[in-house]
Amino acid sequence: VSIGVFITVAAAIILFGYGRYVLAGRVYENLEGPADFGAPPESPANAGSSVISRTAEFVAGKLPPAAETASALQLKLLAAGYRERNAVAVLYGLKLMVMAGTTLFMLLFEFNSPAAPWGRIVGIAVGIFAGFELPDYFLAKRINRRKKRLRKALPDALDLVVVCAEAGLTIDRSFRNV
């Protein structure tokens, strides 16, 4: 009985203790090195989105945005948390692709519509405008969601920076730890 209890306890410690203590120790080891704020490695779940982003980047390469538009989009993307080099091209390409898709949908919809010709033209124009502005709408929602998360997390982060500074760490090291 005592050998069975010993094996059961040892198995529980090995199974649950490994994830709790050994993996946590690796996190602390990673904190000692320089901070890496690069893009996370691509996961298999994002494989479909990489095809979309490559297609959008290709479309944006064929119809590039103006310099003012690109800088405005860059600021919006930074506010939303997208820091990749190709983020502006991907967003602009998505805007063009969504605009083409909604325009095509509205053309098909209005083709079978019994509305007057000026009504059809207005419907197609609304589809073009909505398609071009739809990615901006979702980007604005993401910006607001990120601002709320940052606003919510800032007091805790500042408290942790103060605690680290009081413990004798430099400000740079405190920010890295936090």
Explain what the structure shows.
With 178 residues, the chain is mainly alpha-helical. It is built from 6 helices and no strands. Helix 3 packs across helix 4 (87-111) and helix 5 crosses helix 6. The longest helix has 50 residues, at 117-166. Residues 35-45 have low confidence and may be disordered.
Short description:
The protein is mostly helical and 178 residues long. It has 6 helices and no strands.
Query: In angstroms, what is the radius of gyration?
Result: 26 Å
Total DSSP helices: 6
Order of helices and strands: HHHHHH
Helicity level: over 70%
| Class derived from helix and strand content | mainly alpha
Instruction: State the separation between the terminal residues, measured CA to CA.
Output: 48 Å
Mean pLDDT: 81
Determine the strand fraction and express it as a percent band.
Answer: under 5%
Which stretches are low in confidence, meaning pLDDT under 50 for 5 or more residues running? 35-45
What is the count of β-strands? Answer: 0
How can the largest sheet be summarized?
none
Oligomer classification: single chain
Shape: elongated
